[in-house]
Task: inverse folding
């Protein structure tokens, strides 16, 4: 296929949309559609190349796949080695496992599968993972495995109909998954959900390969309207939209229109030196821009980049991209396959060594896990078994602690008080949401769906244990978001047996920044000021619940003075992230509130033991 400067310029536009979105999504809420533009162009070009070779009886699967790898892998491998090397000195030890998985899945072009599973509940977020953007390259490589099979083994006359059928079926499947099952997050990274975007380009390549001609003025209007729709999509679609699916067809069809529009001023603009230059660098620009942004966000634990950071990101991105393009991309385009193979094997070996050795080197700055992650009571967290804590000489006490990760965080609190005040308790907790029947799936945001599904697997087990015990203690991050959590707890309150009691905790406050990232030690080093946040609405709802039911009691954990200088207490780290206290914090809380809690709890406990 003849090289087209205008397509290269459209690639430049695609990158700029993504880049602006990544710098600050408020500037361009739908800038992520730049990735979809890349997909359409890939489908269009690859189909043109394969069909052209098929028509001339010169197509080779081997040559096709090797050329794709030679185009993508050299710069990609250097990028992964460099980012992995830097990342092990920026990432915290607690996040190394996720970081290593990101490296491994990116190398294998399956990172989209990893990221489709969502955030690690206790670990690093996706929006500061330096390999997050590799999901699109993974999908592209996966699609390249499928496209030749479709185009070569299906007769050419049937291909347009087959491609339209694939687009229709997979778009419908994606819509159903998102609108009915609320699987927006997982579908965003899904190959089946993205295949229609490639196929739009493939269809245009097959049916309109020789372009469309509406006359001089008609071509101008057609191209202008297509570009306008594309740019409007970048402003009107946002991260809360049900995307991809049918909504993705709007920008993808608009992109495809630009690819087949005959002589027009839009194509002429994209073929000019400026857009062409950015387009030529677009692959390397895409590779390098995101890890720079992600590392800054991770280190600062702040999504928003300041002006200096934005300028720094722009300069470093274009510098690294230019070096990558000139020294790597162009170099390997001219080299034979044997050179490429030697490079790939050497780079792969180096990467394996780095991913195993660098964590050992980075252990110099390791912070003890008791300060950086949950470490007490994990045997009854997300498992269908209970553990007993406190003073086990009183193992017949029928006291049960349930809830989400905030309940997990106060196991050490109750254990300390129980050991000193002669009571024991059993626990069963889950991550993200309490394991209660009645919590509505429809109220759960897409990013929390995996936690909902996981917690609901333990709902029956939790209910069985509620029936076995006389005092039920429940703590969770929020009882009113979703509101069905409050309704589920209220149902427990109304169905208590005469000899049962329910205690609801107003949980400990949160802070606005991840203190482990900011402080990077368990002894206070930072001068940053943290804002302490107490959910007053949550506390008010629990007070109301306790006032409305005879056997329901309310206790406020957030009143403790240990939170005065949160996330530190006596210059020692007491939070392991923004929203969870660590074991040191939990025990410190117990030491401060022991007398107050026992004055509240002793009368309830005495009645249970009668």
Result:
């Amino acid at each position: 296929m003849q090289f087209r400067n205008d397509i290269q310029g459209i690639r430049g536009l695609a990158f700029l949309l993504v880049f602006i979105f990544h710098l600050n999504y408020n500037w361009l809420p739908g800038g992520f559609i730049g990735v979809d533009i890349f997909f359409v162009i890939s489908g269009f070009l690859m189909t043109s190349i394969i069909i052209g070779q098929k028509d001339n009886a010169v197509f080779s699967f081997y040559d096709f796949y090797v050329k794709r790898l030679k185009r993508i892998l050299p710069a990609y491998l250097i990028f992964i080695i460099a980012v992995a090397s830097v990342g092990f000195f920026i990432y915290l030890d607690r996040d190394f496992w996720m970081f290593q998985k990101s490296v491994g899945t990116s190398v294998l072009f399956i990172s989209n599968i990893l990221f489709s599973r969502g955030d690690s509940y206790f670990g690093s977020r996706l929006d500061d993972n330096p390999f997050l953007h590799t999901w699109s390259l993974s999908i592209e490589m996966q699609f390249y495995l499928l496209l030749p099979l479709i185009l070569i083994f299906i007769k050419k006359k049937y291909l347009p109909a087959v491609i339209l059928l694939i687009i229709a079926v997979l778009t419908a499947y994606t819509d159903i998954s998102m609108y009915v099952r609320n699987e927006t997050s997982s579908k965003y990274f899904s190959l089946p959900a993205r295949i229609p975007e490639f196929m739009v380009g493939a269809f245009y390549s097959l049916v309109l390969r020789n372009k469309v001609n509406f006359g001089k003025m008609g071509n101008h209007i057609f191209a202008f309207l297509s570009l306008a729709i594309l740019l409007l999509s970048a402003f009107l679609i946002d991260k809360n939209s049900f995307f991809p699916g049918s909504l993705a067809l709007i920008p993808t069809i608009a992109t495809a229109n630009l690819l087949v529009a005959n002589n027009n001023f839009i194509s002429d603009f994209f073929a000019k030196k400026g857009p062409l230059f950015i387009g030529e660098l677009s692959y390397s620009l895409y590779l390098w821009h995101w890890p720079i942004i992600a590392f800054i966000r991770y280190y600062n634990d702040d999504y928003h980049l300041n002006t200096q950071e934005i300028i720094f990101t722009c300069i470093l991105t274009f510098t690294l991209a230019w070096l990558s393009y000139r020294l790597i991309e162009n170099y390997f385009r001219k080299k034979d396959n044997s050179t490429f193979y030697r490079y790939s094997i050497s780079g792969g070996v180096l990467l394996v060594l780095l991913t195993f050795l660098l964590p050992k080197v980075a252990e110099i700055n390791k912070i003890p896990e008791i300060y950086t992650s949950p470490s007490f009571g994990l045997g009854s967290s997300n498992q269908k078994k209970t553990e007993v804590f406190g003073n086990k000489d009183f193992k017949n006490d029928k006291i049960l602690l349930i809830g989400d990760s905030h309940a997990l965080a106060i196991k050490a609190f109750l254990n300390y008080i129980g050991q000193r005040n002669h009571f024991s308790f059993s626990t069963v907790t889950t991550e993200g949401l309490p394991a209660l029947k009645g919590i509505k799936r429809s109220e759960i945001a897409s990013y929390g769906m995996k936690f909902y599904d996981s917690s609901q697997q333990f709902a029956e087990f939790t209910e069985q244990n509620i029936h076995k015990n006389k005092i039920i203690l429940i703590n969770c991050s929020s009882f009113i978001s979703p509101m069905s959590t409050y309704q589920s707890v209220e149902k427990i309150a109304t169905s208590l047996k005469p000899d049962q009691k329910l205690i609801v905790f107003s949980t400990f406050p949160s802070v606005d920044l991840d203190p482990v990232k900011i402080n990077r030690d368990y002894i206070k080093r930072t001068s940053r000021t943290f804002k302490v946040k107490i959910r007053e609405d949550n506390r008010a709802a629990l007070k109301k619940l306790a006032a409305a039911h005879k056997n329901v009691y309310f206790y406020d954990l957030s009143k403790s003075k240990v939170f005065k200088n949160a996330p530190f207490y006596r210059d020692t780290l007491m939070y392991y992230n923004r929203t969870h206290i660590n074991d040191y914090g939990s025990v410190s809380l117990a030491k401060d509130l022991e007398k107050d809690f026992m004055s509240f709890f002793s009368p309830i406990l005495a009645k249970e033991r009668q």
The chain has a mean pLDDT of 92. The chain has two domains: 5-365, 370-609.
